[in-house]
Amino acid sequence: MGDALPRCLRPAAEMEEPLTLPYLSSPVTVNWGITARCNFVCSHCFSRLDRSPELSGEEARRVVDILSRHAVMFLNYGTGEPLLREDLFPLTEYAVAKGMKVTMNSNGSLVDGAAAERIRQAGFHSVGISIDSADPRTHDAFRRMTGSFEKAVRAARLLKEKGVPVSISSVVCKVNHRDFPELVSLAKDLGAHTIDLHNFKCSGVGGLNKEKLDLSPPEWKAFYEAAVPLQRAEKNIRIAFDDPILSLLGKEKEEGKLVAGSVCGKLSLYIKPDGEMTPCGFIPVTIGHILKDDLSKVWSESKVLAHLRGKRATGKCSGCATFSSCLGGCTARSYAVYGVYDAPDPHCWAGES
Known about the structure:
By secondary structure, this protein is an alpha/beta fold. It is 34% helix and 14% strand. It contains 14 helices and ten strands. Strands 7-6-5-4-3-2-1-8-9-10 form a ten-stranded mixed sheet, with helices on one face. α6 links the parallel β5 and β6.
């Protein structure tokens, strides 16, 4: 790797002022909660309790300028329902013009033919539509919105017709962990290039509903032992996971991940609707403000990020052969359940009888 690479992909050791920790010189991906507003009241939502005010349109463009100067390659809108943000399309066009690949996660309810065409015109790199079950009743109950399954399916089809790449985003939990093959089949039928099977987090409303929705460690093991072979066998759609504890099955090494453990604070960063920055959307610890603090300084000097990049093995992680690969698993889950970054992932099944 050398000077021909984008600045954010150059190792810290090659920068003009070398950094002491082994991480990239700036985030590759920024997940941006451009609005906390949403027309759904989902059972697992990490942001529904967020009452943050939104940045103005002018402030949002300044955010894009900052990310562009730091060579951020991928910008993803999430948190609430992005389509409720009135300046979504001109803001996206502005970011695309600066060379960023812009994506968003949407519940699909506001995507009609006109919106799909506007999404195409704005230059979205891809749109993720949330569908959590191939059974309409299960999906609607989980999203707590009657008719949401039908609207999500319609949105995926409309976007595909307009030539917008589509992915399906699903939260794996008690309502669907045994039915994921049917969900994968639905995603293929909708023409999605990827289905993201996100592990349930315990943040926000999800934390309040943890007992009803989260799986036990043995159930997570059973899920992955069934899902990973399907992932390997599937040729017509990419099945993606985002769970560091897959290292227990040797999956992390197989995929050749760029970093061990969680990517938060190593490859990615999160911006709240009001501009505050956190390691990820599921870790509600402020490390700075995108418009008030220097991003380079926050990225290189934040004590919180340094802790996440150098997690220590504690509890059952001590002496575990896979710790160097998973670094204790998902930091967000550990922090949500135990209030500390270094605690073993509550989903981890190592040592479980």
